[in-house]
Amino acid sequence: MNNSEWVLDARNVSYAYGGKTLALQDVSLRIARGSKATILGANGAGKSTLFLHFNGILRPRSGEILFDGAPISYRAKDLGAIRERVAVVLQNPDDQIFSSTVEEDVAFGPMNLGIPRSEVDKRTEEALTLTGLSKMRERSTQQLSFGQRKRVALAGALAMRPQVLVMDEPTAGMDTHMVGEIMELTDKLNEQGMTIVISTHDVDLAYCWSDSVHVLDRGRAVFSGTPEGFFNRPRDVNDAGLVVPSMYEINRLAMASLDLPEHPHPKTSSELLAKMSKCLPGRLFVDQGGNGGSAPPHATAGIYGPMHRAAAAAGELNIEYSYNGLEGCLGEVLLGRDAVLVLDPGLKGQVERKLDRLDKVFGQRIEALWD
Q1: pTM summary value
Q2: How far apart are the C-alpha atoms of 176 and 351, rounded to whole Å?
């Protein structure tokens, strides 16, 4: 594998459908290996068109796409290899679901690679478990809801075991709980080393989730950098047909009312509370076994990750925050209360980085007790 810092690199890419108006115009941007990156832009900005270049579905009219530091080759055998490494999940799942049952569709990609059946079965089971579809494996894909079909398309991509997962508007058409599940899954995959790239026009999601944002406006790349770096430029945000995130605006107004500086900018409710709270923080008990660990009985509980959610739904765990549990627990702790976070082991690093940011950026050190 090439050791380039940039796993995907678009260099001066232009593209026109049918030789007409350019959908992409001289677009240059780079996605860092192992990062969570968002391509942000209003509808019609060119996000979907750019995504179809990342694994060779579309070929630039001019410019080039590099993967792992090397230009993509458009020879048939090379395209198969790049599509194994860079999996694209389309906005409309019906554009990539072809099989009659859930299990058959998830297995479709690995089967086409000529992988031995035992390995295909292993990958399929793993992808079904990750996306919460194990109990639906025999269901007809035509009988699924839109959100369920989006999960099938995602499972099919994960069965390829890609290095880069590219998702076009992954939360569109999903209810709030399903959005939470998908974004927690992206955190878990990223913790395992996978680069995650999403497109969205949801500024709140882009602001709180992304390591970097890359903004498209009418086919042109107008910004690449940190979420804070972009949203600190309100005029540029407006020119791109976007608005500032809710948390950014709440912080601006709250700090103005208190005659306090806007910086640092919180991305989430717990970070805003960390910035404003004068309470001595409570304790955060982190339970990776789902049995309550050593947390006191009065502690508020939340879930982060899909592993223990079924047990919570069945009433086997006493959980107050079934979704967005990390934020819920941190909020409780910052109010001086104890909380227990029931955590998938694969998300430990995400929690540690969140606690480190609360400490270094907002001056709130939270005692985490790991079981």
Answers
A1: 0.93
A2: 22
